[in-house]
Amino acid sequence: MKTLFSRLLAAASLVLAFAAVAGEPLDRIIVVVNDGVILQSELDGAIQDAHQQLKQRGIADPPGDVLRTQVLERLVLNKLQTQRAAEAGIKIDDRELNEVVTNVAAQNGMNLPQFAEAVKKDGGNYLAVREQIRDQVLISRLRQKEVDSRVSVTDQDVDLYLATEEPQDNVEYRLSHILIAVPEGAKPEDRARARTKAEGVLKQLKDGADFAQVALANSDGQQALQGGDLDWRKAADLPSLFASTAAKLQKGEISNVLEAGSGYHIIKLVDVRGGGNRSTVTETHARHILLTPNAIRNEDQTSALARDLYDRIRKGADFAELAKQYSDDPGSKNAGGDLGFQPPGVFVPEFQIRLDQLKPGEISPPFRSKFGWHIASVIERRTRDTTEESRRARARNAIGERKSAEEYDIWLRRLREEAYVEYRLKSDADAAKKTDS
């Protein structure tokens, strides 16, 4: 499954475009969400941000109040999630927030002052952007706590996945997506109405309507404000319904209406890339002697002992016997310092770099890592085919992602249905009713 930080970066990268509305308009409450509110200024800023995102993607603004409705619903969902995070005791202090913002800036090739200046040049308010990022962190932590932590993937799940899924290792699809959602526990007539709406949307697309515009106007999916763009995703990371359908589509082709528990989907295959390859890894069989400074042997004495042992080994002393006698590594000491075959990345960087410099049979001079002083030796290397291991790992990750996405959608809909939401403007209330129906 994706890491918390990778999800955060995907959301936070959009924050760079946030821009405040010029001037200081008179604020007012437009939506009451439980015991919180959404202000006109929040909506104005979010709409301006959405305009910029659409412009960057080359998507024309939708007609009427379509964009306002989509943005307002997104604000309601975000407000509900940050409220739930507060109830769950999830907090992001300023120190941690500074670390996150610094990482976001680095991902955009900037340091923190440059990031702040970039936000200012775009007409935005840096402090407001920081709070937007804080909310994204809170929402990510909340999802991890209440959804992701409850998702489990068994070996049987992986076996079934590999037995039933078409092999599409390393194939990546770029899809656009429209969802006509159906509430949890919907009656047959509600599903029938949603199906009719989805068929009408499909007809618009078949008649030549722009997919991004139609998605923006009709989709209940999380990517509606991006014109339904799901970006590049490996086949294994897509819902199985999407992956199997995409494999049968030609570039630019649009699927029929696809039925799932969450509602009715329409996907378009924008592009495809990649293909299957064998996976291999070069493993190193190494051994070492670790000497750690302690209460009776300081740093200089430890370094001197390491040099002495190195000289003795070069003169013919048995490496394994010296490891058993002197090494402070409890995991390898009794095995004569033997670390077994290990792939790259298992050891700390200082140790891995030294191993990579050695040929089989060579012994390194003493060197320091955070654990202490080492003498390392490479016994042999081998290249191992890890294709099946990689397939199972990808399958486990894909199943986890799918389960998480499905559970999150259900959880989010339930959170929305249980909330008290009062629209202060009649036009917004009418739009919300149309969306719910």
- Beta-strand portion reads 15-25%
Strand neighbour order, sheet with most strands: 4-3-6-5
Number of helices: 15
Tell me, briefly, the overall form: elongated
Task: Tell me the domain tally.
Answer: 3
How is the quaternary structure best described?
A: single chain
Please state the structural category: alpha+beta
The CATH superfamily of the largest domain is identified as Porin chaperone SurA, peptide-binding domain
Largest sheet: 4 strands, antiparallel
Spatial extent as radius of gyration: 28 Å
Describe this structure in words.
The chain is α+β, with helices and mostly antiparallel strands. It has three domains: 1-166 and 391-437, Triger factor/SurA peptide-binding fold, CATH 1.10.4030; 168-275, Chitinase A, domain 3, CATH 3.10.50.40; 280-385, Roll (Chitinase A, domain 3), CATH 3.10.50. Helix content is 49%, strand content 17%. The protein has 15 helices and eleven strands. The protein has helices at 4-12, 40-56, 66-87, 94-107, 112-121, 126-146, 155-164, 188-206, 211-218, 240-246, 299-314, 319-326, 349-357, 387-418, 426-436; strands spanning 29-33, 36-39, 172-181, 229-234, 258-260, 263-273, 280-291, 338-342, 367-369, 372-385, 421-423. The strands form three sheets. Strands 4-3-6-5 form a four-stranded antiparallel β-sheet, with helices on both faces. The protein has a four-stranded antiparallel β-sheet with strand order 8-7-10-9. Residues 1-25 have low confidence and may be disordered.
